[in-house]
Amino acid sequence: PTLMVPSAASPPCSSVTLTQDDLKKIAAYKAVEHVKSGMVVGLGTGSTAKHAVDRIAQLLQQGKLKDIVGIPTSTKTHEQAVSLGIPLSDLDSHPIVDLAIEGADEVDPELNLVKGRGGSLLREKMVESASKKFVVIVDESKLVKHIGGSGLAMPVEVIPFCWNHSLKRLVNLFADSGCVGQLRKCPESGKPYVTDNGNYIIDLYFERDIGDLNEASDGILRLPGIVEHGMFIGLATSLIVAGIDGVTVKTK
Ligand code: 5RP
């Protein structure tokens, strides 16, 4: 079901111009309405999810939420949550997460996602696949017809050992889709980007559709040296999209 609700920040006749960050915040705040006292909550990573973490902390401080346990999906989110005083745990102590709230780089109509352009795909996938509910929050720029077809990166986390060999095998796997791959580097140092888990990221770019997503996923994960990829297939349970005309909520 798809439901249109007016955006609180965009009342009728308002002449306010919303920035992309305003839209991210609107989607994040809407998602946090699903957080209830006593829940174990997956805390996402990125500029959209950051607003959700801020909002959870605010509600805790105001006493409107109680006994929340947060499971952060990156060291960055861990630091943010600690600085805001959100009680934290991990999947070892809390293997079942009630609700995860997370951004995405691409979302298709079936709620399949590309994630990891921010570099945190592995922990995100671990937390989100342990979640009873996984709410994706995006501004409307993230909506695509087919994930992987936007011409933007589809990240794959690989072990550093012989990463170039892994890159070639990944590119070969998707030769029919006109794939090229690139080792992600830190813009400042020019050195390889290192994930929270001590691994590298290879960004794949496709000229043509990658076909069946589950086959693509299986093919990637069969390659030795690959840790995880940024396609999140069938994991999201609902999607909150903030656009200039309001907020759309889609639930599977
Ligand atoms: C980090 C991610 C982020 O969720 C994704 O990159 C979206 O980020 P943003 O909300 O900043 O657009 O997958 O690894």
TrEMBL record:
Pathway(s) served: Carbohydrate degradation; pentose phosphate pathway; D-ribose 5-phosphate from D-ribulose 5-phosphate (non-oxidative stage): step 1/1
Enzyme class (EC, first level): isomerase
InterPro entries associated with the record: NagB/RpiA_transferase-like, Ribose-5P_isomerase, Ribose5P_isomerase_typA_subgr, Ribose5P_isomerase_type_A
Keywords carried by this UniProt record: Isomerase
Biological process per Gene Ontology, one example term: pentose-phosphate shunt, non-oxidative branch
Keyword Isomerase carried by entry: yes
One example GO MF annotation: ribose-5-phosphate isomerase activity
Catalysis performed (reactions): aldehydo-D-ribose 5-phosphate = D-ribulose 5-phosphate
Family of the protein in this entry: Belongs to the ribose 5-phosphate isomerase family.
Name of the featured protein: ribose-5-phosphate isomerase
